[in-house]
Write a structure and sequence with these properties.
With 244 residues, the protein is of the alpha+beta class. The protein contains 5 helices and 13 strands.
């Protein structure tokens, strides 16, 4: 594999040896007006982070990339790009591995977490999305095992360069699908790889813990639960996994 990965037509690679955060660097470039498809890739991050401010351990050996997207939509629809990114990661998992996506944007391989996805948006004063930075970290060569991790780590295998090429190609395909057909087609693809309908799960909403049976996601990507108190739609929260 070449040390200069090949990206989709029209996409641009900004390759760095080390950076605090690829998301921060991509956001800085986006504010300067770089086009969609600008990808910031670093061999290591010294200040990587995940959802809800969690640290993301980022030494050399795994993939750390952030892509500038310009979806031309309002904020609620931009949240759908988390599903786009999750499906793109699932698309590059080698055949024969067990894949499961977990709401809202986790990807599990053989029962372990293989990637972290962090979307960060900039909005205009009228609520239009100026840009979205889609940060994706993929365990390629090794899987960090930290006490706070809810799932064990899993690795993709192969090389970082191959993972970057595969991820950007898959992301371009899934973005085109999202733009052409809307969220419905992606929703069906995501549900096909999600946990079984009817499985009992726990969801954390701040200090509240909600238990219910997984009933899918709606057309805006909200989590649907059947709880003892009746159906419930959850727009923002943390799916902890199957209830114990």
């Amino acid at each position: 594999m070449s040390l200069a990965p090949v990206l989709p037509d029209g996409w641009t690679l900004v390759a760095l040896e080390s950076v605090g955060s690829t998301n921060d660097e991509a956001a800085r470039l986006a504010d300067r007006g770089v086009p969609e498809g600008t990808v910031v890739w670093a061999r290591e991050q010294t200040g990587g982070r995940g959802r809800r401010g969690r640290r993301w351990v980022s030494p050399v050996g795994n993939l750390y990339s952030s892509t500038v997207l310009r979806p031309d939509c309002r904020a609620p629809r931009a949240a759908e790009l988390g599903f786009v990114a999750a499906l793109a990661v699932a698309d590059i998992v080698p055949p024969g591995r067990s894949i499961r996506v977990k709401w809202p944007n986790d990807v599990l391989v053989d029962g372990g977490k293989v990637a972290g996805i962090l979307l960060e948006s900039a909005l205009s004063q009228t609520g239009e999305v100026q840009h979205v930075v889609a940060g994706v970290g993929v365990n390629v060569g090794f899987a960090p095992q930290l006490p706070e991790m809810r799932y064990p780590g899993a690795t993709l295998g192969g090389t970082v360069e191959a993972a970057l090429e595969g991820l950007t190609a898959a992301l371009a395909r899934r973005l085109a699908q999202w733009r052409a057909a809307g969220f419905d087609g992606l929703r069906e693809a995501w549900l096909a790889q999600a946990g079984p309908i009817g499985a009992e799960v726990d969801v954390r909403l701040g200090s509240e813990l909600v238990r219910g049976c997984f009933a899918g996601i709606d057309r805006e990507g909200a989590l649907l639960l059947d709880t003892a108190q009746g159906p419930r739609k959850i727009v923002s929260g943390e799916l902890l996994g199957q209830a114990t």
